[in-house]
Structure formats: C-alpha cells, structure tokens
Amino acid sequence: MIYSEKVLENFANPLNVGEIENADGIGEVGNEKCGDIMKMYLKIQNNIIEDVKFKTFGCGAAIATSSIATEMIKGKSIDQALKLTNKAVVEALDGLPAAKVHCSVLAEQAVKSAIADYYKRQGVDPVPIVGEIEDHCDGQCN
Amino acid sequence: MVYNIKVDYFSINIIKKAVIILKDINNIIYLDNAATTKLSPAVREAMEPYLDELYGNASSLYSLGRKSAAALENSRARIAEAIGADPREVYFTSGGSESDNWAIKGAKHLMEKQGKRHIISSVFEHHAVLNVLESLEKSGFEITYLPVYKNGVVEISDLEKAIRPDTGLVTIMYVNNEIGTIQPVTEIGGICRSRGILFHTDAVQAIGSVPVDVKAINADFLTLSGHKIHAMKGVGILYVNKRIRISPFIEGGAQESGLRAGTENIAGIVGLAEGVCRAVGGMEEKHARLMPLRDKIYREIMKMERVHLNGELERRVPCCLNFSFEGVEGEALLLQLDLAGICCSSGSACTSGSLDPSHVLLSLGLPHEIAHGSLRISMSEYTTEAEIDRFLEVLPGVVDKLRKMSPLWENIIKNS
C-alpha cells in the first residue's frame, strides 16, 4: 500500500483543520470503532460556503481526504458542494490505495452531512435536496 | 596547481539532492526491528564468498560444489549447537512462515496416523499459524484457541483444561511479535511431552532475546527466521525432533534429507548461522543495554495523558513495547513519526489492510478504538540512547498534534 505524494502532502500539512464557532452546519460521519470519524463545520452565506473546517480521527488517508475535500468546497455554492463525489476526491489526491477508498466516501458524506445539518437548522427537510447520508461505517467491522 | 572545474547549475542540484537522500537515510531512527532488521556487517562478511566465487551447487560432486556442501553442513552444525539441537534436526527453509506451515501440516499427517483430531493454540499467534489452523478446521480438525488476557500471556491452567485424549499438537509462540510478551513455553513443552502431545513453538521473535534451547523446552518443532536477527530475508529453519518422521514439505530433489527440495540458498544459510550465533552469543549484552532503554521509554511514555501499555511489562522481551494512545489513530501516528524520520509500526486497522485492528490487540480485550491507536516500538542491538531520546522528544508533539484535530479526543476530554 503506497500513498501518492499528494496524499502525503495533504496529510503532513492538512488545510482547514479546526472548528468554526457558530457554524451554520456541522456534520459528523464514521465512528470510533472503525477508526474513522470526520467532523465538518460550514459557514454559509447566500448559499455560498464562505468557510469550512474539519476535525478528523483516522488514518493518513482520512486526514488527507478531509483536507482536500474541504479545500474543494471552500468558496463554492451549496449546489456545487453537493456535486462533490468521492471519485473527484480520489482524483484530486492522485489516487488512493483500494483499502482507503472508503475514506474518500467518508469525506463526501461528511460534506453532505454538514449541508443537511445546515438545511435542518433553516427548517428545511434536507432529504429531498441532499439525499440520505450513507454512513458506510455501521460499527460492525466484521 | 590550478584546477579548472566547471560545475553547472544542473550538476549542483543533482549533488545537492544526493546529499539530502544520503543524509535522510543516515538520519533514520529505526524502531521497527520486530518487522525486520538491518544486515549486520559480520553476517555480510560471512556471506560474501558465497555470493562471489563460491557459487557451487551443494549437490555437485566437484570441489566447488563440495565447498558449498561443507558450508551448508557447517551452518547446520553451528545453528544446532546454538539451540541445543542435533544437526540432523535442523532443516533450512525460506523463513518463518514456511517453517510454521511445515510444522503444523507435518504434525497433521502424524496425528491422522494416530487418529487424533484436536489441536491447541493461542488466539494471538502469527497468521502463518492461525491461517493454517483455520484450513485444518475446514478439513475436520478441532482447534482450541487459548485466551491471553490483558497481560498477553497464556495460562497453564487453561492449557491443562483444554487437553483431550485426542489432542495431538500444541502450537504456541515463544514471544509475541506485536507486543513482545514471553509465553511459558518450558511449562507448555513439559506438559506436552508428558502427555504424548507434539509441541511446536514459533521462536522467531525469541532468539537473541530469551534463551532458546530445544531440549529445555521439550520442543518437537521450532521455527526461526533470519531477517529478525540481522541476517537475510527469505531464510529460516524448522527444528524437528529426531524422534519424529515428518512428511516432506517440498517434493523434488534430495536436499534437506529429501524433505524440503530445492537448491540451497548457501549464502543466506551461512548468514543465518552467523546471525543465530551472534544473537545467542550477544544476548546478555543486548539485554543489559536495552533494558534501561526499554524502561526509559516506558517511564516517559506513561507520563503522557491517556496512554496504555499493551501486555504486561514483566514477562516481556527487552526490545519491544506496545502502547495505545487514546483519541489517535495508529497509522496517522506512524506517518507523523515517519515525517520526523522515525520508523515504528501500528496494529491499527488501517495498517492491517482490513477493517479490524490487529487480532493480537483485540485478544488482550482492548476496545476497537483503543486498539486503533496502537504503536509498536521494537529495538535492536544497534539502537542507541540518543535515538530513543530523539524519539521521546518527537512523540508527545506528534500525539498532541493528532489529538488536536481528533473529534474523538474532543469527546474523551468532554466526557471525562
């Protein structure tokens, strides 16, 4: 299992680490049993993601995908952010080892989960817009 | 004298890069000696003639071949003496996994002849043992896996309770590879011998750290590997007690008494013999030097917040420690250490290639989230105090950095 330079770079110097006080949307996916938790904070104004931060417990790929995914949605509209796919995250990192692709899914879901939370806070049902959040990690590793 | 040397920008850059790479390699702090070790200069020197002019096939009759055959038998005798065996009891293999496979599959044939179908092992064996046992289970054998509890050591009373009239083999490792705890193999071997049960032990991590004497531990089969003791990868031995007629593992030529065919890796075997003799001869000195370092690591790491030693400290080899850091994932931890030029390993799921953390850590009863945050530090005779000091200087900052970005750590602190 070899990481690309891009993954290592994003792991060594992750961008957008931290929390946002009074965030407009917070999403958390994964669980501790599986060894990956991603928490994403969004500051949204006029449908634009003005700021995004993350906190991640997880492996090198989990941290790298969090870093690149937050970078990819920063300054974008909600619609554009919802179009972020795990495939795009993998491509932006010049690939991920097969065993680590689930980390990119987690990053995509973390973004969606934070946007869903934003809609909920606005009193809007997020499901028709964001869809169901597929949390691939059900805590049953076997 | 005036030298007129033209150095262009391009060559300067190449030289600079080469210097940086050399510097990087020289600055590596290697604390993953349970994974593999560097070749010792003495082993290299012993091997060199056989990589060079003495390339004969040990089965050839002319003098070049006879020299290889002599080196082969001399190596066998040296290893036998080092572990208290007869040279006829030492078979060369490709390493630990092959030896474990051969011992268990060989024992299976012997058990079938005796009508025995029950094997006892432990839950935290190496996969070279566990996966073979799993396939035996599919062909109708019953396996009892002894627990190892929080301290990482099997209990003799559990072994005694597990023995049945049809128990034909006990296979329990001498020293665990992930946590370094020492198993009571002398007692286990004694019980097996008195009950007529075959006993195999994987001593790959034991040799050079604890005494390995096949007679003292009543072993019927014992596994050793070269690359854990500063010899080559791809070479090891299986000790087989001479009262046992083991079935062939590789069929073909007459090598290794016709039991393990294939032209012998003479250079690797000569290096292995040198490695085994150095490991056994240097054990006390290594012990005396590494014990204070091990205790220093333990003392300093335990000062950190929410950290656990995996397995007990007492019955443990001097070279290996395994900790779990709450709120941190092990692979991220070892990648961070790598950025500082330090090599360690982890039993987290992310490093095992599966979704589960290592079976060894789970066998200690650790919850998944704590097993995910594990770090193994394994030293060798080449580890220096300066290297340990540097490691202990870097580690707290790295753990702190990862905890600061960990939502799990945030929850742990909030709920405490």
Question: Can you offer a commentary on this structure?
Answer:
The complex is a heterodimer of chains A (142) and B (416). Chain A is of the alpha+beta class. Chain A has a single domain (5-123), classed as Sufe protein. Chain: A, CATH 3.90.1010. Chain A contains six helices and three strands, in the order αβββααααα. A three-stranded antiparallel β-sheet of chain A has the order 1-2-3. In chain A, helix 1 crosses helix 2. The longest helix of chain A is centred in the C-terminal third of the chain and has 21 residues, at 101-121. The two termini of chain A are 22 Å apart. Chain B has 416 residues and is of the alpha/beta class. Chain B folds into two domains: 42-281, 3-Layer(aba) Sandwich (Aspartate Aminotransferase, domain 2); 283-403, Aspartate Aminotransferase, domain 1, CATH 3.90.1150. Chain B is built from 15 helices and twelve strands. Chain B has a seven-stranded mixed β-sheet, with helices on both faces. A three-stranded antiparallel β-sheet of chain B has the order 9-10-12. In chain B, helix 3 packs parallel to helix 8 and helix 10 (330-339) crosses helix 14 (385-404). The longest helix of chain B is centred in the N-terminal third of the chain and has 20 residues, at 63-82. Chain B starts with 8 loop residues before the first helix and ends with a helix. The relative contact order of chain B is 0.14.
